[in-house]
């Protein structure tokens, strides 16, 4: 169960780069980019995000299970429109009181097409994890590495993931 929690923590931390899946109605195939609060820019449309676990250490998890997880990337598709991008990013902000992940930003830089962030998140059991993201972005693509290091119920654990998000066209419908 802790493996799922660590994975979800990292995916939630990435929410600012992945728009909501329930948004429809993007009319143009290439609308102008929309500036996000952190300075990143995204072009509205349908986005595909692929997350691959590249390294993982969790006490009690057999090596075969880790190897299996590393061979199965998680892929999702989401739609973002010009009208809802800013509101979505505000809602997912690490400092938003409505955000359930209880994270505090230790710094974020989204300048010159580079991403470098660090947050400390505490789960309901009081275990803290440091989430670091580093990579590059453009209006139609994000590539980054996510590192999650922290203390779990069974001891220290870590996970490294590769994330690629790319705009694949207009939103369906």
Sum this structure up briefly.
With 173 residues, the chain is of the alpha+beta class.
Note down, in words, how this protein is organized:
This protein has 173 residues and is an alpha+beta fold. It contains three helices and nine strands. It has a seven-stranded antiparallel sheet. Strands 1-2 form a two-stranded antiparallel ribbon. A hairpin with a 4-residue loop joins β5 and β6. The longest helix has 12 residues. The N terminus is likely disordered.
Q: Topology as H/E string?
A: HEEEHEHEEEEE
Spatial strand order of the main sheet:
4-3-9-8-7-6-5
Supply the helix-strand structural class. Answer: alpha+beta
Global Rg: 16 Å
| Helix percentage | 10-25%
CA(first)-CA(last) distance: 37 Å
Round the mean pLDDT to the nearest integer and report it.
Answer: 74
Largest sheet: 7 strands, antiparallel
**Uncertain residue segments:** 1-40
What's the total count of β strands?
Answer: 9
Q: Number of helical segments? A: 3
Shape: globular
The amount of beta strand, in percent, is 35-45%
Draw up the topology in text.
Layout: H1 2-13, E1 34-35, E2 41-42, E3 45-57, H2 63-70, E4 74-80, H3 85-92, E5 103-109, E6 114-122, E7 128-137, E8 141-152, E9 155-169
Antiparallel strand pairs: 1-2, 3-4, 3-9, 5-6, 6-7, 7-8, 8-9
Task: List the main descriptive attributes of the protein structure presented here.
173 residues, alpha+beta, 7-stranded antiparallel β-sheet, two-stranded antiparallel ribbon, 3 helices
């Amino acid at each position: 169960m802790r493996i799922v929690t660590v994975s979800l923590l990292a995916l939630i931390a990435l929410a600012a780069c992945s728009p909501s899946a329930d948004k429809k109605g993007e009319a143009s195939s290439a609308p102008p980019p929309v500036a996000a609060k952190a300075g990143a820019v995204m072009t509205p449309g349908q986005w595909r995000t692929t997350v691959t676990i590249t390294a993982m250490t969790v006490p009690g998890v057999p090596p075969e299970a880790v190897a299996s997880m590393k061979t199965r990337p998680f892929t999702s598709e989401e739609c973002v429109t010009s009208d809802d991008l800013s509101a979505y990013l505000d809602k997912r902000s690490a400092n938003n009181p409505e955000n359930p992940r209880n994270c505090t930003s230790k710094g974020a830089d989204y300048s010159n097409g580079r991403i470098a962030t660090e947050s400390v998140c505490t789960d309901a059991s009081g275990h803290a994890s440091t989430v670091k993201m580093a990579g590059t972005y453009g209006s139609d693509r994000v590539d980054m590495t996510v590192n999650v290091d922290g203390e779990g119920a069974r001891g220290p654990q870590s996970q490294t993931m590769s994330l690629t998000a790319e705009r694949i066209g207009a939103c369906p419908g």
